[in-house]
Amino acid sequence: MLNIFDWLRRCESGAELLATLRYFAKPPKSASDELEMGAPISALNGPCRRCCLYGREQDEYCRFCAAVIEHARRLTNTSRISVVVWGLVNQMPKQVRNEEGAISPLLLGSHVHDSNRFLVMMYRRKLKAWLQEMLLYHGAELRGLMQIFPTVGLGGKLNMGEILCLASHYEPRLPPDRLTAQFYSSPFQFLNPRLRDRQGLLTFDLAEFLSLLEMAEVFRAKLYPVEQRQLQELLDLKDPKEEQFYWGRYLGQLNQDAKDMLAAWRIRQWPKTRIKLLYELIEYAALPNTD
To answer: What is the domain partition of the chain in residue ranges?
Structure first.
């Protein structure tokens, strides 16, 4: 019989992952207990097309898979702006599940795999608030690794279940001696995480990662989207003389707060990888009093 994690690894998309998490958040907990095994594969019959194990009931799917697919259709838009965290910790944070089994109001869904591992989903722009709450509540007591990555849709090179398997595969055998975060801006970076690690874009102390999220919030608040794109194009210029010429014109269209921010950060001296990371984190930045 399949357990909860087996069902999570069968999810094709982020919407199916969230639908499965929400299904198991309500009783009955063991969805597969009442399912019957499917018939052997033949020209006229066979098991469920999705789980390839239980008997077909609705449109060639078993009852559980049909329910997940139907619920996932209503969660597609939510999934697109969500983020997944796979955690390995020395103790389970209350921000995953408290003693009564309730999840944090910042989360869309959660699964406690064992005493040290968990999976949560939330809106991207709630990530900073959730990490801050966890850090403030547990302080130096909590040690471990948080792998942070976005969801995928249907039909990609990797499905959501495969990404969960890779996240589990890449985790250390024991929780690290400090609280760290690994940030994947794209799930497909799991195929070659060493490249991102060599660029200095993968692993951070959690406090350092929170400060990067705060910088992204300030950046998003001070510059309009069109100004953000113009700055990115300007910083990507190869010719220093051309960059110097357009830099003055660019500053002329900004307000004083934006000019002061760029001057204080000395953003023109940043390495390309740090600029890339800042723009990746904009999607996770909430505007004050709006998100």
So the answer is: 4-76, 81-205, 213-284
